């Protein structure tokens, strides 16, 4: 049984790694968060109702039409937040999901995050908040800003239970500002929505001279069977709610983000150790990985 579990985990990681045309270096993939989530994600991919393609037709998601129809209303609330400087990076290092994005200029304001509570969103963006609450399949949403020169490095998102919807609000309308998903690019345009599978390798850059603001949503992945949909919903509610991060004081902070705050400060010492002696750092890291693997296999 133990070896069957190890074999299934290895199969899951290989499935994630070889999915799509673009891949991470295998050494990075082994320790990427998408590998730790691989057994869950292979389930999501096997029972997914949508095709295994990087880009998906937005027209197939009829429930999102109110967002498209009201994009100018949504844009007005986003631009007001921008004036108030509310679209920002995490101030307390308590955003486990997106912390690595902040160093390259990316900023966000949460409108909805699974079962977490964000009173600031209802107060500051009442119309957008109401629209999103009326669409149950939208599990998470935020305003996301990418300033001139901002970029997101190639990555996979860890959880395959959702698909990603981007609605252009105030964009450069310029091909130099784009997202690349599995080698296929899309340049954001005001009022235009796109849907893609964020478990393919994707990256983005704003090479223009103008800011980019979009509505960024996680839409629940449709599953082929009701029981599989229920499993997806349960995992989203438990795993993803735990990664909730606040906009303002009074917003909910999930357990994972609370723990991340601690690990972020512990990471400062890790980075000092790495800077002091890279060889010692790599040997220590390898030793810990081998030790953990041995515990898993032999206990």
UniProtKB/TrEMBL annotation:
The keyword rRNA processing does not apply. It comes from Pseudoduganella violacea. The chain crosses the membrane at residues 280-298. Keywords: Dioxygenase, Membrane, Oxidoreductase, Transmembrane, Transmembrane helix. Residues 68-222 form the Aspartyl/asparaginy/proline hydroxylase domain. This is Beta-hydroxylase. Belongs to the aspartyl/asparaginyl beta-hydroxylase family. One of its GO terms (molecular function) is dioxygenase activity. It is an enzyme of class 1 (oxidoreductase). It comes from the Bacteria. Its EC number is 1.14.11.-. Pfam families: Asp_Arg_Hydrox (PF05118).
């Amino acid at each position: 049984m133990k070896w069957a579990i190890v074999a299934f985990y290895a199969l899951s990681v290989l499935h994630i790694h070889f999915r799509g045309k673009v891949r991470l270096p295998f050494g990075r993939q082994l320790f990427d968060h998408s590998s730790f989530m691989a057994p869950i994600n292979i389930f999501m991919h096997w029972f997914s109702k949508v095709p295994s393609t990087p880009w998906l037709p937005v027209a197939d998601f009829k429930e999102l039409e109110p967002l498209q129809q009201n994009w100018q209303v949504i844009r007005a609330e986003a631009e007001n937040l921008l004036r108030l400087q509310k679209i920002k990076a995490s101030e307390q290092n308590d955003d486990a999901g997106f912390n690595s994005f902040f160093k390259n200029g990316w900023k966000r304001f949460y409108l909805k995050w699974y079962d977490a509570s964000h009173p600031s969103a209802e107060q500051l963006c009442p119309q957008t908040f109401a629209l999103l609450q009326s669409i149950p399949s939208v599990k998470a949403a935020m305003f996301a800003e990418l300033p001139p020169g901002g970029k997101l490095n190639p990555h996979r998102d860890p959880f395959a239970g959702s698909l990603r919807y981007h609605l252009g609000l105030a964009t450069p309308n310029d091909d130099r500002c784009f997202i690349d998903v599995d080698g296929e690019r899309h340049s954001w345009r005001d009022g235009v929505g796109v849907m893609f599978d964020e478990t393919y390798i994707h990256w983005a850059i704003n090479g223009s001279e103008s800011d980019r603001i979009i509505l960024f949503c996680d839409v629940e992945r449709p599953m082929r069977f009701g029981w599989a949909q229920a499993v997806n919903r349960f995992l989203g509610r438990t795993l993803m709610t735990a990664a909730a991060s606040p906009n303002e004081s009074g917003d909910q902070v999930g357990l994972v983000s609370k723990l991340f705050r601690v690990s972020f400060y512990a990471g400062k010492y890790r980075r000092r150790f790495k800077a002091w002696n890279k060889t010692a750092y790599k040997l220590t890291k390898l030793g810990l990985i081998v030790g953990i693997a041995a515990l898993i296999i032999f206990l």
